[in-house]
């Protein structure tokens, strides 16, 4: 018997750090938003690379996102639903939990 792949969509999906119900419509909207932000960032970088680095619209990676949240520059955070669970102290779950907690504290 072939096992069905795990899906992260729908109201019954269990995602341990998200409150949003993931749907195909949400995925399409997020993809469109990120694509547009990336396009704006690339256009700004083409005009003036120094200014574009100072006024970044889009950051990737845990450290960069954590820094943006701490500085209260983040307006939204998009997190992949399929992050592997880690039990170790200071692991990925702890870092991600801290980022989400700080973002909620900032009203992000």
Top keywords for this entry?
108 residues; mainly alpha; 4 helices
Structure description:
By secondary structure, the protein is mainly alpha-helical. The protein has four helices and no strands. It has helices at 24-47, 49-54, 62-70, 92-106. It is globular, with a radius of gyration of 16 Å.
Topology at a glance:
Blueprint: H1 24-47, H2 49-54, H3 62-70, H4 92-106
Q: Span from first to last CA?
A: 44 Å
Rg (C-alpha, Å): 16 Å
Mean pLDDT: 83
Number of helices: 4
Ranges where pLDDT stays below 50 over 5 or more residues in a row are none
Helix content: 40-55%
In short:
The protein is 50% helix and 0% strand. The protein has helices spanning 24-47, 49-54, 62-70, 92-106.
